[in-house]
Structure formats: structure tokens, C-alpha cells
Amino acid sequence: MNALRAVFIYEWKRSLTLGRMGLWLAMAAFPVMITILIRTLGDSENQIDIATQKSTWSMTLYALIPGVCVALSVLLTAAPAVASELEQRSWAYLATRPNGIFWLLLGKFLVSVTWGTTAAWLGTAFSVALCGMDEQLRMLLSLSALSLLSAIAYSALYMLVGAIFPKRAMVFCMMYTVIVELVFGSIPAVINRMTVQFRLRTLFVNWMPFDERMKDESVFQYVMIDGSSFMQCFWLITLSILFLVAAIVVAHRKEFTSATEGDI
Amino acid sequence: MTALIELKNVTKDYGRFRALSNVDLTIRPGITGLLGPNGAGKSTLIKVLLGLVRISAGEGHVLGFPIRTSADQIRTHIGYMPEDDCYVHGLSGIESMQVVAQLSRFPGTEALRRGHEILDFCGMGQERYRPVETYSTGMRQKLRFAMAIVHDPKLLILDEPTSGLDPEEREAMLNRIRILARQFGKSVILCTHILPDVQVVCDNVVILAGGSVRVSDTLDELCRMPNPSMTVTLSGNRDAYRDRLTAKGVQSEVMSLRQLRVFGEVAVLNEPLWSAATESGCIVRGLSPSKNSLEQIFLSAVREVTHANS
Q1: CA dihedral for A168, A169, A171, A176, sign (positive or negative)
Q2: Partner B, chain A 11-30, Cβ-Cβ below 8 Å
């Protein structure tokens, strides 16, 4: 745990740059800005019932916060976990410590979760307050929990992709997100159950204020599962552990070198 | 004496490129110079010892641990100073030390204390509190060295520890290496291109070329000439002195304007050397047993590979 704390502090201090903090603020501000835009430009004369309004806001905030805000935040911190050490040539120092790779990736994972979650929680607080719906506490708690789960799962996933493809980590992470999480995750087939999005979506429907009538529409039958929240959380955590373990194994087995290319 | 490192037929391939070819090597405790031209396989050998790359064939032990299965145990006892400038932006020198000490299982406060102690040993003053990116080359070199020894390893692998240092700093660095080896009983593998560094601190020398070990022996043994000879430093007429020696049946060769190498046992040479000096009016300024220079040994080992390849 001592080593984990050391890596966390080391990574945290390193990430406290103006650029990183600016990005963090931008991520937190993004859902708030969209909420303000919707409130300002929204058609107030077109009266729709409260249940539909709640569902619409729930879906919007779900897409904006645990979706875009968290995924982008952790993409910037988790994907380059291995690449940044290789580029900075500090890999050899850290990897040659006892269990160095394990603590390094675990520490970076925690930093990534912290960055992603805090940005999301800040965005959630303002967005929920500004959306003007009732059941704000429920929305706040649900979105916060979903953001935390999303940050854990996507951090682990992006660390794995970053360990496999350290040179183009962000590009591969984006490709994976679009192809697997968005496309496969939306396919009404068993394959979508292997995605993080599928589990998060089901939790979203279980937790957020959502119009019960919408659940009966055919499209929802395929892209969500009528399972308990506990099981969804269990699967999300299991997936995250698997991704993280795989990332550590890959980093252990890959022959990364810090020397300049061609140096043998 | 128990071997520190034992490699048997170790081969490492990177795809179709063979970086190490059937390396048989035994390294004993002490300071060992690892030499070789660029591309000889030195870096690969170090990575193999550290378990950063897996060997394609063969077997080996480092500090008694098998390299194929015990990389973590090996790393616990090895301190590695890479050649690359690998500091962490945003951290001060002492913070960097604390991080690596904690990663080496020292608790927080102990890690800090240990960091200060090692930086003191490395001659780093108040600059330890400055961000590492503001350090000069010499200070970075000191910090890398300090990070390598913070966990009190049994074996140190130092990759070009004196490159980029001014003469004073270089001497200080070599002194630290000597102190660690002689006073604290650490074993050191010194990987360098600077042959005089090897000559002044190393007990053993390994020369790699073309991915295989060309030379592995003690420095004394390597530098010993195949035929006994003496180097004579003169002032006066060198040629007249040489003629007198030839007349006395002593063979010699010119080394420089004021130096001759004379062949034979010291006991036999003693009389003719001094009488030739008297007879030719020369003054013998210096007399020492001739030795092979490390440069000659290195070049001949490398040339063998070049010839074999061509």
C-alpha cells in the first residue's frame, strides 16, 4: 500500500499542470454548458408531460456526464499510462522496482478514476441544479454513482488498450469506444452484454427518474436488461478487474524498453 | 568465490534480429566493466539481467535466482542506473528519491530519510529541493545514481554513469563507485565507452561484440603482456641508447620519442639497462613493467568480430 500511495502522489503531482486542470474544468463545465443551452434555447411553449421531461433530462444528463464527461476525462489520464512513462523514459526506473509495474498501473488507475469522477461530480452538481426538475437528490446520487462506476470501468479498459498499443493509445481507445461500446453496445444481441455501456445503461434505467412506459418500447427490450442493480454493479466491477489485471499482465509480458529505438 | 551472474548459451532475438548469441558469461563479485561497441548487445544484456526482456534460449542465474522465473526477486536486489535521462517532471530531487524508495518498500518517513542520506552521499546539496527539470546534466546524473542505490542493492548496474560529467564530477562519481564496492561490499557492473574509467575502477572486464562475449577476465590478467617486458622512459639520445642495448643482446622497440619497450625478465634486464644508459650518456627517468592497454585489448576484440563478419 505504501508503494501504491507513492505512485498515486507521484502521478497526482505530475498531473497537476495548468493544461490538465484546464481540461478537467472543461470536462466539468461541458454538461453544465449544454444544460444551460437546453434551458435557454428549449421550446417552452411546447408543453410535454412531466414524466417525459424527466426521462429526457435523465437521458441527456446520463449521456453527457457518465458518458462523454467521464469517458473523455479518463481517456486523457488512463490511456497514456504506459506511453507517458516510456516517452519520459522513466519506465525502467519504475518497472525495475519490486512489483513496480503492478503498483504503477494501479496507482495510475486510481488517479484516473479520481480525475474522471471529480470532474463528473462537479458537472453533475451544477447540471442537476440547473435542469429544474424535481427529484434532484435522486438524480444527483444516481448520476454520481454512475459516474464513479463509469470512471472505474473506462479507466481499466483504457489502461488495457494503452498497455497493448502504447504508441497510439488514445486513437485505439477512441476506436474501441466507438466500435465496441457504441456500435456493439447498441446491437440488440448477446454481444452487447460484454460492453460497459450495456451495464451502465441498465443501471441508469433502474436508478434515474425514468418514464416506466418507455421501458416497454421494443428498442429498450434489446439494449437493456431487466436485471437487478446489484448484478449490474457486480458485472461492471468484474469487467473492470479483468481489464486491469489484463493490463498489468500485458505490461509485464511486453518487452518495453526505455532506450532509444535501435539501441540493442 | 560464488558467481554473481551466470549465463549459459543465452540467446535473445528481436524478431529476426539476434541481439545476443549463445552468451556464456560468469561475473564474480567486484567491479566489472562491460564494454563493447555500439550495437554489441550491452543494453540487451542488461535488460536480460533485469528481466525487462525475456531470453529466447539458454538459461541463467543472477544472484542465485533464475532469470526466467524470478525477475521480481532479482530486481529487489539490483540497482539500475539507465543511460537515458529519465527524470519525472514536476517532482523535486528529494521527492523523486522518496517515490523510488517507497516503490522499493520503504515506508514514507523512512523513504524520505533514506533519500536524504543517499543524496548526501552523492554530494547533492540544497538543489535537492528544486524541480528536477531545472537540474544540470551533472546533477541529473547524480540523481539517477542516487535513485539506483536508494534501496541498498547488492548489485548495481550502471549504464554510462560518467558520460557528460566534467573531470571533477567524473572523478567524484568513480570514487563513489569505489566506496560502494570496497567499503560496502557492493558488486557493480559498469557499462561504459570510457575505457580509462574501466581501467581505474574495475577488477574484471567483459567485452561484448556482435552479440557475443569476446573477452571476459580480470583486468590484471588481460593487461599482462604475453612476453615479459619493461617500458623505459629516457632523456638523452634514444637511438644511441637503443644501439647500446642491441650490442648487449637486448631486444627493444620504440614506443615514443622518449620511450622504449625492452623485452626480457626484469632480473636479466637490470644490468644492461643501466650500463647502456651510462655508456650512451642517457638518463633513465622511468622504468616500469609493460602492460597491454585496455584500448588495445578492446580494439583487437572488436576487430576480430569485424574481420569475421567481413
Answers
A1: positive
A2: 13-14, 16-17
